Amino acid sequence: MNAYAANEESWVRYGQIQLDRGYMPPVPDVIRWGFWDGVGPGAEVLGPVRGKRVLAVGSGPGHQAVHLARRCGALVDAVELSPTQHQRAVEHFGNESGVQFVNADVVEHLHTAIPYNAAYGICTLGCADPRYVLPALANGLCAGAPLVFSALHTNLHGHGPSSVITPREELIRIAGQEPIPVQMWVLTPHLWEDVLGEYGFRVESVEVLRAPDADNPVAVQLVRSRRAPDA
Questions:
Q1: Partners of 201 in the beta sheet?
Q2: Going by DSSP bridges, is the β-strand pair 75-80/53-57 parallel, antiparallel, or unpaired?
Q3: Can you spell out the DSSP letters for 159-218?
Q4: Which residue in 138, 149, 121, 109 sits closest to 227, CA to CA?
C-alpha cells in the first residue's frame, strides 16, 4: 500500500473513532495552527478574506472552516478526503452559511474548481507528497493568492525535520485508543521553501510554533507563501 492510500485509510479510521465517541471540537475563537491554544497568530495571516473564496485543504471536522466563515466572512470550500471526517462536518455544520463541505481528493477537486483567492491547511499538507499537491494548488489559486499552512517540525520524541522529500511514519494519538500510523512529509523550512518555489510559490515567512511546556519537544512550522503572479 502506498503512502497516499495508507493515509486515507488512517484518516477514515480516525474519523470513525470520533464519530463513535460523538466528539466534535468547538468552533474556535481564534484559528489554532498548531496543537495549543494561544500559540501563534490567527486567521489574519491569510489577509482580508471577507467575501473571498477560500480553500481549506483537508478540513477535517470543519470547525476551523466555520470560524473563517462566521468571524471573517469568507466563502469557504472545505475539502476533505476522508468520508468519516466529512460526515462529522456535515452532521454538525451542514447548514452553515458560507461553507461548502466537499468529500474529495483536493487535487481532483482543483481540476474543475474556479481559482481561489486564498488557501490554507492546518497540519494537513504534510500528509501528502508536496510534488503531488503543490502543482494543483498553483493552478487552482489566483495570481498573488496566499497559501498558508502548518506542518509538523519536531515530534514527541524530538525527531526533527528531514532535508529530503520523503515520508516517515508518525502517530495520531487519541486518549484510550491505539495510536494510528500516518505517513507525513516533515521537511526543513529550507526544503519547504525550495519545493514551494519549484511549483510557483514565494515563501514570505516560516515561523516555528513551540509547545508552551518547556519539556514538550513538539513544534510545528507555520509557512506563509504566495502564488507568484507569473506562475
A1: 227
A2: parallel
A3: ---BSSS--EEEEE--TTS--EEEEE--B-HHHHHHHHHHTTEEEEEEEEEE-SSTT---
A4: 138
- Point out which residues pair with 178 in neighbouring strands: none
Q: Where are the beta strands (DSSP E) in 69-137?
A: 75-80, 99-103, 118-122
- Cα-based angle 142, 145, 146 (whole degrees, multiple of 5): 150
Beta bridge partners of 162: 187
Please state the domain extents for the chain.
3-227
pLDDT at 75: 98
pTM, 2 dp: 0.96
**Parts of the chain with a pLDDT under 70:** 1, 231
Alpha-carbon span 7 to 128, nearest angstrom: 8
So what's the pLDDT on residue 10? 97
Distance of CA 153 to the CA centre of its chain: 14
**Domain 3-227 of CATH type 3.50.50.60:** no
Write out the DSSP string of 12-81.
HHHHHHHHHHT--PPPPSS--SSSSTTSS--GGGG---TT-EEEEES-TTSHHHHHHHHHH--EEEEEES
Q: Which DSSP category does 123 fall into?
A: S
pLDDT number for residue 127? 96
